[in-house]
Automatic annotation (TrEMBL):
NDH-1 is composed of 14 different subunits. Subunits NuoB, C, D, E, F, and G constitute the peripheral sector of the complex. Keywords: Cell membrane, Membrane, NAD, Quinone, Translocase, Transport, Ubiquinone. GO terms for molecular function: NADH dehydrogenase (quinone) (non-electrogenic) activity; NADH dehydrogenase (ubiquinone) activity; quinone binding. The gene is nuoC. It comes from Humisphaera borealis. This is NADH-quinone oxidoreductase subunit C.
Length: 195
């Protein structure tokens, strides 16, 4: 038996964006709204600026690889955890992404350096940055880029944060081998004297 999901942001979202079909889910009292990739900045701007909502804090950005997940229709998702401090509400936004090219380790589409990834990277994995709305998104988006290969267009400093520029792989993708692709075996040890 289905029931109606209620949340203070749902009706204002539907009223403000009648042209967008939102999908809404609930898990353990947390509401998730699926937003089309092209609309993420518009929707986030509204949620932040509307005086009745005021989602003024971006608490988290993370990503999921659905490779091999039963009945998954999309490969990747980016999740945004929003908090309205004045109204003590939380809301999750989810954007699905599907790569246009091979994502396997060693693929030519993984070999771009940070300074060329926005221009040459996989167009299916490009998503507008929300750093213009929440400056704290800068490092969170960099981590999602470094670990999963999601390219945030408009990011002020999109570069890897945990691996090195030109690493060529994305370690949290499910097609990345558990032992890596030779990084440990070929890792150059730098001593204090040689640094």
């Amino acid at each position: 038996m289905s029931r109606t999901i209620e949340h203070p942001a749902l009706q204002p979202l539907k009223a403000q964006f009648p042209d967008i079909q939102f999908f809404v889910g609930e898990f353990r009292d947390m509401i998730t709204v699926v937003v089309p990739r092209e609309q993420i900045v518009r929707v986030c701007t509204f949620l932040r600026d509307d005086p009745n909502l005021r989602y003024d804090m971006l608490a988290e950005i993370n990503s999921v690889d659905y490779l091999g997940y039963p009945n998954a229709k999309h490969r990747f998702a980016v999740n945004y955890g929003l908090t309205s401090i004045p109204h003590n509400n939380r809301l999750w936004l989810k954007v699905f992404l599907d790569p246009a090219h091979d994502t396997a380790p060693g693929s030519e589409w993984n070999k771009f350096r940070d300074e060329e990834v926005v221009e040459k990277g996989d167009p299916g994995l490009k998503l507008d940055s929300v750093c213009c709305l929440w400056p704290g998104a800068e490092w969170m988006e960099r981590e999602v880029y470094d670990m999963m290969g999601i390219i945030f267009v408009g990011h002020p400093d999109l570069r890897r944060i945990l691996t090195w520029n030109g690493f060529g792989n994305y370690p949290l993708r499910k097609d990345y081998p558990m032992r890596g692709v030779g990084e440990r075996e070929n890792y150059k040890v730098i001593t204090r004297e040689g640094a």
